Fold:
Amino acid sequence: MGRIDQAAARARMVAEHLRGRGIGDERVLRAMGEVPRERFVRPEDEGRAYADRALPIGHDQTISQPYVVALMLEALALRPEDRLLEIGAGSGYAVAVAARLCASVLGIERVEPLAVAAARRLEELGVANAVIRAGDGSLGAPDEAPFDAILVSAGAPAVAPALLEQLADGGRYVAPIGRSSWAQELVRYTRDGEEYRRTALGGVAFVPLIGAGGW
Ligand code: SAH
Structure:
């Protein structure tokens, strides 16, 4: 597919799969309409880069479904001055979208070759306000805390208190949480001093978060 076809497919994705299914945050919709998802999938999947589904990225991992990326970013309510931590950076796609919505993004990815590939893609696309770190991010990045927003892009059995502690006051944490390693509920916790307000955002299916704060 050529550039124009991909741009048209991307616009259709935004209209049908995102706006059409209830995503209303105009900044999120614009950012999703700008990031070339075809650059984050395997060459053989470029033709279905804008289908509303997760796709394999190797190492038994996946790039998340566009609707779910939009839902999570909308729930994080990123402001231009915010610092975001993403745990489970995978292909780097969500990092690239989020980097258009806030001041800086730190993405952590456990599978080193995926982390290397994600960092290279972001560099090629000129994303200057994001950094990818290889390693276990399930307990966050205390050395860089606090964060205004924390996004966990892999399923954990429970909320890790260490992550909530790394939120700035007013900060938002969004994560898929569930007892099954393949089906979870997307939840958001908003910090208000030492209190956390919980909101349930619906059922999702993520690959497992593997590590000290996960499975
Ligand atoms: N957000 C990604 C998709 C994530 S899939 C994208 O936009 O492409 C979930 C990712 O979480 C996988 O790549 C997996 O390797 C990673 N992961 C699992 N456990 C992790 C951990 N403890 N720390 C960091 N990354 C982890």
Notes: Residues 61-64, 87-91, 93-94, 108-111, 114, 136-138, 153-154, 207, 209-211, 214 surround S-adenosyl-L-homocysteine (CB under 6 Å). The first strand starts at residue 55 and ends at 58. The two ends are 39 Å apart (CA to CA). The domain at 54-204 is CATH 3.40.50.150 (Rossmann fold).
